[in-house]
Amino acid sequence: MAWTYRITAAARPRLAMRVAQIFDQHLLEVEHFHLVREDAVTTIRISVDCGEPIAHRIHAKLYRLTDVVRVDLASGTPQGAIGELRNPSSPSYLDPLGPQP
Fold first, then answer.
1. What pLDDT score was predicted for residue 26?
2. pLDDT of 48-95, one tens digit each?
3. Where are the annotated segments for Disordered (predicted)?
4. Domain 2-68 is of which CATH architecture?
């Protein structure tokens, strides 16, 4: 089944490598990898094909990474089904590192 992750994190060195390493540990091929870095926030969208237990295990591991603020997971979705990556300069963007409403 196809799984799509959207990861929001602080823009720090080697973030993409640490995220990719988690998928590599499970011997998964990444079907889609999209990274947007704006100011101090990085948003990564990754699509992989794997079973449900592995998908949830990876979800938990991603949350444990340093600098990761949020991880969204969608199942059985084509690329981009979670939604397009937002531009942090748009007025509707919620800064994950700032105060929450």
1. 94
2. 999 999 999 999 999 999 899 999 998 865 544 455 545 444 444 555
3. 78-101
4. 2-Layer Sandwich (3.30)
Q: Of how many residues is the chain composed?
A: 101
How does residue 27 score in pLDDT terms, banded at 50, 70 and 90? very high
The rounded distance, in Å, linking the Cα atoms of 75 and 13 is: 29
Q: Give bridge partners of residue 46 from the DSSP assignment.
A: 5, 33
Among 47, 44, 41, residue whose Cα is nearest residue 11 = 41
Residue 18 to residue 80: CA distance in whole angstroms = 22
Q: Which residue has the tokens 């990444």?
A: 30
Q: What is d(CA 25, CA 43) in angstroms, rounded to the nearest whole number?
A: 21
* Closest by Cα among 55, 25, 51, 44 to 82: 44
Instruction: Give pLDDT, residue 75.
Output: 81
Q: Give the closest residue to 5 by CA, choosing from 72, 76, 77.
A: 72
Q: Domain ranges in the chain? A: 2-68
